[in-house]
Specification:
The complex is a heterodimer.
Chain A: E1 4-6, E2 11-14, E3 19-25, E4 32-38, E5 45-50, E6 54-58, E7 61-66, E8 71-76, E9 85-94, E10 97-102, E11 106-111
Parallel strand pairs in A: 2-11
Antiparallel strand pairs in A: 1-3, 3-8, 4-5, 4-9, 6-7, 7-8, 9-10, 9-11
Chain B: E1 5-7, E2 10-13, E3 19-24, E4 31-37, E5 44-50, E6 53-57, E7 64-68, E8 74-78, E9 87-94, E10 102-103, E11 107-111
Parallel strand pairs in B: 2-11
Antiparallel strand pairs in B: 1-3, 3-8, 4-5, 4-9, 5-6, 7-8, 9-10, 9-11
Classes of the chains: A mainly beta, B mainly beta.
Chain lengths: 112, 112
């Protein structure tokens, strides 16, 4: 079982709709989670961090964390064509174990 | 405020050669991590440097080595290059434990 799993997609969503990206993790020692956006040929760009159970909103993005279910999600509201990218979910144990463990990413395409 | 900078952008080497990649962290960040990203995969943790010491290492052979300088910049060295070392090499910096890591633009290494 991979430590962080994501549906590789591709996920296609109409412009203006809500895109929902999901991630599960196996290591209960993971404390923090991060969502990165990666355009083709570019490096990952941090878009959301979440450290505790519940929802965290930033503009059109909402990250959700459920540690009991070992589940992380990212919602993108009012999807735009510029949101088309690969989204990487990463977990971090912290407190001395500082490596990010990534999923393989979900490719999202916003259809105009 | 300069972000994470990496050099060179692209590099072509042949099998058996050695390579050095360089990274300057974001201003105010003291921790540098290196990742390898193969096509279609999430980044894989190579190692992390803090206070000029290798603090943590991933599952990479000792052909991969690194260094951190007093100004927090870092180098990644790879010896005896193999075809399988072809990848995007990413440097990420952070400030403290359990903090988000910010990536540079990466170095794309091609082995012929």
């Amino acid at each position: 079982q991979k430590e962080v799993e994501q549906n590789s997609g591709p996920l296609s969503v109409p412009e203006g709709a809500i895109a929902s990206l999901n991630c599960t993790y196996s290591d209960r020692g993971s404390q923090s989670f991060f969502w990165y956006r990666q355009y083709s040929g570019k490096s990952p760009e941090l878009i959301m961090s979440i450290y505790s159970n519940g929802d965290k909103e930033d503009g059109r993005f909402t990250a959700q964390l459920n540690k009991a279910s070992q589940y992380v999600s990212l919602l993108i509201r009012d999807s735009q064509p510029s949101d088309s990218a690969t989204y990487l979910c990463a977990g971090l144990k912290g407190f001395g174990n500082e490596k990010l463990t990534f999923g393989t990413g979900t490719r999202l395409t916003i259809i105009p | 405020d300069a972000g994470v900078t990496q050099s060179p952008t692209h590099l072509i080497k042949t099998r058996g050669q050695q390579v050095t990649l360089r990274c300057s962290p974001k201003s105010g960040h003291d921790t540098v991590s290196w990742y390898q990203q193969a096509l279609g995969q999430g980044p894989q943790f190579i190692f992390q440097y803090y206070e000029e010491e290798e603090r943590q290492r991933g599952n990479f052979p000792d052909r991969f080595s690194g260094h951190q300088f007093p100004n927090y910049s870092s180098e990644l060295n790879v010896n005896a290059l193999l075809l399988g070392d072809s990848a995007l090499y990413l440097c990420a910096s952070s400030d403290g434990s359990n903090q988000p890591q910010h990536f540079g633009d990466g170095t794309r290494l091609s082995i012929l």
